[in-house]
Amino acid sequence: MKHKNAKKYGMVIDLDKCTGCGSCMVACMAENNVPFRKDESNKVLSITWLRVYQLTNGKPFPNTDICYLPRPCMHCEGQHEGHSPCVSVCPAVATDYNTETGIVSQIYTRCFGCRYCMASCPYHARYFNWWDPVWPDGMEKYLSPNVSPRMRGVVEKCSFCFHRYQLAKEKAFKEGRREIKEDEYQTACTQACPAGAITFGDLNNPNHAVSRMVKPDPKHHGRPTNPNAFRLLERLGTNPKVYYLSSREWVRRAGDNYLENEAKYKKTVHQG
Amino acid sequence: MKIDRRSFLSFLLGGAAGTALSPLPWKLTDDSSIWTQMWPWTPVPEDGEASYVNSSCTLCPGGCGITVRKIDDRAVKIEGMKRHPVNNGGLCSLGLSGLQLLYGPTRVKTPLKRVGKRGRGRWEKISWKDAVSEVAKTLGDLREKGQSHTVGFISGSDRGTVPRLFERFLTVYGSPNLIRTPSIIDSYELALHLMQGAQALPGFDFENANFILSFGSGIVDGWGSPVRMFRANSAWRDTGGKVIQIEPRLSNTAAKSDKWIPINPGTEAALALGIAHIIIKESLYDAEFINNYSEGFEDWKAFVLGEYGPDSVATITGIDSTTIIALARSFARASKPLAICGRGQGTTPGSLNECTAVHALNALVGNINKKGGVFAVAEPDYINWPEVEMDATAAAGMQKNRLDGAGSKKYPFSRYLLNRLPQAINSGKKYPLKALFVAGANPLYTMSDSKAVKKAFDKVPFIVSFSSYMDETAQNADLILPNHNYLERYEDIPTPAGMPQPVIGLSRPVVEPQFNTKHVGDVIILLAKAMGGTLSDAFAWDSYDACLKETMGYKWQVIIEKGFWSYPDFVAGPREESFDTVSGKFEFAPKETGSLKPFKPVKIEGDKTNYPLLLMPYDSIRLANGAMGDPPFVMKSVDDTVLKGTDVFIEINPKTAGEHGLREGQLAMLSTPVGQAKVKVHLFDGIMPGLVALPRGLGHTAYDEYLAGKGINVNELIGPVEDPVSGLDAAWGVRAKLAKA
Amino acid sequence: MSALDNNAKEIAGDAGSDGGATSSPEINTKEQDKGPAGPVILFFIVGLFASLILGWIIFPKLLYSKKKQPIDFNHVMHMAEVEDGCESCHFFREDGTYSGVPKLDQCIDCHEEIQGDSPDEIKFVEEYVSKGREVPWLVYSRQPDCVFFSHVAHVKVAGMDCVTCHGHIGESESLKIYEENRITGYSRDIWGKSIGGFKKNTWDRMKMDDCAECHRKMTANIERTGVKTPTKRLIDHLVDVVSPGTSMSEKGSSVQTERGACFVCHK
Amino acid sequence: MDSALIPRGVKRCPFPQFILFIAIVGAVLLWGVYAMLLCWFKGLNQTNMNDFYGFALWIWADLAVIAVGGGAFFTGLLRYIFGKDDLKNIINYAVLIGFICYSSALLILAIDIGQPLRGWFIFWHANVHSMLTEVAFCLSCYFGVLTIEYIPLVLENRQINKVPFFHHLGHNMHEIMAVFAATGAFLSFFHQGSLGGVAGVLYGRPFAYREGLFIWPWTFFLFTWSAAACGPCFTILVTKITETVTRKKLVKDTAIQLLAKISGWMILTYSIAKTADTWYWATVTVPSLGQTLMDFYSNNPFYGIWILILEIAICGFIPAFILITKKGRKNSAALWIAVFLAVTGVCINRWVMVLQIMAIPVLTFENWVLYLPSWQEIATTILPLAYGVILIAISYRYLPVFPNEPELNPIETLPAEEEEAVEPSVELEQELKPAEA
Description:
The complex is a heterotetramer.
Chain A lengths: L8 E6 L8 H9 L19 E6 L9 E6 L23 E3 L6 E3 L9 H5 L5 E3 L26 E3 L4 H13 L13 H5 L5 E5 L6 H6 L1 E2 L5 E2 L4 E2 L11 E4 L3 H6 L18
Parallel strand pairs in A: 1-12
Antiparallel strand pairs in A: 1-8, 2-3, 4-5, 6-7, 9-10, 11-12
Chain B lengths: L4 H17 L2 H14 L12 E7 L8 E7 L2 E7 L12 H4 L1 H5 L9 E3 L8 E3 L2 H17 L6 E5 L5 H13 L4 E3 L3 H13 L4 E4 L6 E7 L8 H14 L2 E5 L5 H5 L2 E3 L6 H14 L5 H7 E2 L1 H11 L2 H8 L3 H13 L3 E8 L7 H13 L9 E4 L14 H8 L21 H7 L7 E5 L3 H4 L3 H10 L2 E4 L6 H4 L3 E2 L10 E4 L8 E5 L12 H12 L1 H6 L5 H9 L2 H8 L1 E3 L19 E2 L25 E6 L13 H5 L6 E2 L2 E6 L1 H6 L7 E5 L4 E8 L7 E5 L38 E7 L1
Parallel strand pairs in B: 6-7, 6-15, 9-10, 9-13, 10-11, 12-21, 15-16, 16-17, 22-27, 24-26
Antiparallel strand pairs in B: 1-2, 2-3, 4-5, 4-17, 8-14, 18-19, 19-20, 22-28, 23-24, 24-27, 25-26, 25-28
Helix pairs in contact in B: 5-21, 6-16, 6-21, 7-15, 10-13, 10-14, 10-15, 13-14, 17-19
Chain D lengths: L14 H28 L14 H12 L1 H12 L6 H25 L8 H4 L6 H25 L8 H12 L1 H24 L18 H28 L6 H36 L17 H19 L1 H5 L1 H28 L15 H24 L6 H4 L17 H7 L5
């Protein structure tokens, strides 16, 4: 159902600007009390809500090209609002889609660790706490009270720094406002990106930078009409709220699966 | 009454029914699940009042402004300071994870004195009083014996009040041996000195440039002030600025650039001169500048035109001549061109010839001290302390030649030559080093040819580390006098690397000192006072904080409020006053440097027959390779094609790997004339065949378990190569061979 | 299993018809039932009551440990001294966050010196104020770490009073014993004093369901589209009990539960 | 020693031999229990699962045991609803196998979740949209039904049956067994289907997402169908194994043959449906998502196209053809091969529908990730196997699982006098013994 003033928070990541420096990853970990272990080189066991992938065009020297692609949770909207791949499969309502913000939440204390949501997510944006989170003695001092540390045995993922939305709301309430201003709510990665490659805001607001950058087409579930913009795995119909910009054709093509010699956007059929 | 089986069964049934009707099972079920939600071993961060403190990051020379979020007295997050002239809100991954250093397990928590053999990691805690008096006694003894010059001091910087305190101390004490850790800045300072007569820092007006010709500089790999470079790079995307990246490997910078031109490693100087050749031949240079403000152009012109035709340059560099010609034209025709050098992060100074050739390119297009160009930025002159009074011992000590040979007849222009120190100590030709102080540096990790460095350090009988962390150097020290962490102390941060206008940042205590540490400035003052005499006189301040406040004078109020001091009305002097050379003009061919000698590539170690490959270290912004190592979060961001478990990957072209019969992920033995190491193979199309690249920043033996013991320190495989003019380390690689392991 | 089985004396396969074959056991049963029927039921009742007593009376005593507050506190006396009611001490910070239990800083103005001669006051000043130590209050209403509760949304926006959730603690002259759940570590006030989970007043319990209960009522009040008949209300209620979230009466922002989205109150 | 407990008319091995056997299997069981405790107390880091393999060996084992346990519901359905009386001779064993399979599945699920103490959230905070919720509810309910179906058999133990209450309870339960069988079949239909749905609804995973052909997710029907088809094969297989181990004929051929024949036709129709589904998926669904069939079966060392051929052709059509032909199923060796292949086939199907889904990268810049289970995972997966063997051994020894056994294995000698003591009800018991009474 539609709410008055409903927001649809989304993100635009300019891959031409992204340098792959990893600041977003670290800002995210620092903001969200993400634990770490002695060896984090096994990436299928490493909790990185936002992971920066390295893409290569596969061409031999000297025509090789690489591109970095930061991948937070896509906060998929699905084919009808809230039918993201993960939300409907959770047997205990531990993950939820909020129609007021468009954010897919994860409630760690409700989650009992069946990992069905992980199996459902094609982006591998969901992470399981295989271990108890342990901070070296004294280091738990930097933990933020605004995000609860997760216990062993539950799934966690990017929340679009929802606690920042909560804090912004509290401030607005204190000042007698019911709504927050656009710039009051930013994710930690957006804020930290030294290249200014990430833009975050309300996709429902046609005047906001995120809308202007990608020009989402509301008739086609927000598919970008900017020819340089794309979403990951567009044709699965997950309808992500994270958009990417790239001036390089091969990068845009890497965002989805295409048959050989296939034109870029073939009309796809989805059932939901 | 007989209790038979049926009665008992009946009792049990009743009990079951009653239990089901009581809250017991249901509440226990609920509570046990709540227990899992509140496991006592999962920490619960305490809530409190949020506040923000502005400070400056000193983890690298970038000088970013930071805003630290606090909850009551805990620092919980570091963010980039909005509207800071360097970083305007952005921050690199190292800066973002600073709290892991502040609260981390690698902190040295109290002064430590070595027990047993050096480097064994056995320590005893000692009091600050004892520690200072022990150092004072050692220094006093040396001074009494007239050996004050045998005391050395390695510092990560020579700018700002803290390094100036070191310098002041050594001067009054009587040792010329203050050594700054090297970087491309050394070469640039020399180039500016020789060509412009300036004792200044190089400043680059990237924000106003629109055509960047980068000779391997990692614009987005941590060169200069990293966050500022990221911002500039993004601004070029918006404004249509172009970046041309010249290097043999597809670095992140190369990938982000508008054009990547692979070049035979080590031949950048030739390419710069080749470009100059075209510009001169086609008269694309800035005649106004050349005619009015330069000297020696004709000689240089003859030299360049004679030796550096596009075809011969093409042979040297491996870049075809049409590309060179096109490159030269687009560079010269761009409205705001800017050429820069310093490979990767500028970790090594490199060849002086190369630096002057690149700088000459900028001069050729009239790009000196001009919007969008290169500036010679004078040190902000806020440190005006009373002159020191030196006693006879000090004067005698200061008369001695520096141990590293900087300023000697051989290398008259260089100020610091840390790369020559191990050799000087190991050869024992000059004089021994009897005591060594290390602050803001980790030479045992960062200096190349680790074995030789270790050997040299072993010969120094007394090593004092001021490190806040248990780094490699601290681990091998005799005494650790731990400095406050950068979030616990005051310190001024003068102009970050590469800034075109002076800025002074302020690092300030964000939290109370967590451990029994002391500001290194305070320790120097205490030490001076303990030694008495002229030393005591030269350090009249009560504390470092008092010293800093006094030094900053009227700026203090502003800097404490804003977090930095900038010179808003700063304008570079007119060109007439820019050059302080003998001629008063820009010198294209400073006679002293022999820059008119034909280009000879830096001779790197190893012979081609035994070592058919070339090993180049590469820099990644996700791997801190200076005095600081990666904190856990940054280690976490390192890709699994760089490090897997404890194995580091070398990058190698699939073609070269094929020739060696190596597959992706295979173990191999990498050998150089300096050392050998077991590595894993990562096939990477973006690297020139015949090359092998290894990342800097791994292979730590100190710090915590999150960093130590992972990968290889590339410095174990590569040694310094002296630049014939500057004496600085010009090595860009080393010959290598690879065998299946 | 091939060894000789010496029990097998009966020849199998002679299973005949089953008609009338059940008579003898039935008789047996009846005989047995008649005799000890009384004691059997008695045992049942004994078991029933024993377990009921265990569950309702002994269990809660075992489950909760009793802790005394470090010092006593008189809300009534303080309320008389301040002008702004609860918010005088339990105030909102600039950024809208709620300060909760006062820190020493707030007390120090009046309690720099010992006020009066109560032993608690003396202890407060000597043990805490003069040493600069915060009082380790045991907070009755402390919610678990996973809960995000916005006081400002409830107090400033919704205009609720403190009593609705916290009860009449402001009218207390001394602090009650703090009871801590030995398993979960929570205050007993979260589950409520009644071990059965029953409540009379809004402030008797502070579990999620209690938040939800009130929210349902409030949403209904705010977004009422038509008056519900008692039957409709009953049906809705039943639907809600049987299958939470499917009731179409008041939709919240959650796609899954159609109540308020989980992230509103969780972090 | 335990002769008083052993059903009449049958021969069992000596007690020490039995104990030795139980001890050996019990050791395996304890090994599994140890691994289980490790997983519970130390967490799932004991496994080799990872963020790509959120579902792995255990979920496969779960799906597989439920599929092969499907023999219980399908045999029950045929026996009680469709009145295939011949199957009365195997229904007890089918129920027992089903009971073992379903209790194992529940146990594995309890180990598999990261927070076992919160496992009940799936019921209390159920999300009705989730396939897994449906699985959990149906699974538990059907486990309840199987327990009810198993209890009468337990009550038929010679000593228990002496207690009149139990005797009557057992008798009355038999009377209403058709109701339970119907309930069981209904529940089974749903949870077998929802297990298929578990994979089929994953529209973010093109390999799992099987749409089209009338209704979605199509895996719902395929799973039910394959369980109904292959479950009885597992029942036959286990019966055959039991017969081999005990060196006795335990079930009449008529029952086996009937079951085999029905299975055969089920497998055949299933294989056709599965082929159609695969065809539709490969030619319509997958290309619409920009991929080709071979994208899922190449570029990795394990999941080649062979797995598809093995699953559908070798383990689908071949056993189907063997079982539908009279000659095929009459031939003992062929029957063995057929039921073995059919069971393998359904297990492979469940394997690919769990593990291959996880292995396949959907993002173009991710790679195949293969997985090897840790010993803890293997031990906990073997644990239900050991438990099943023990339960079968005990049931076989003490319960009249095979009503045909005394008939098929007449005992020549009549020694052992001690049995005289329990005279009065002996005849009655014998009369009541067959479960179909």
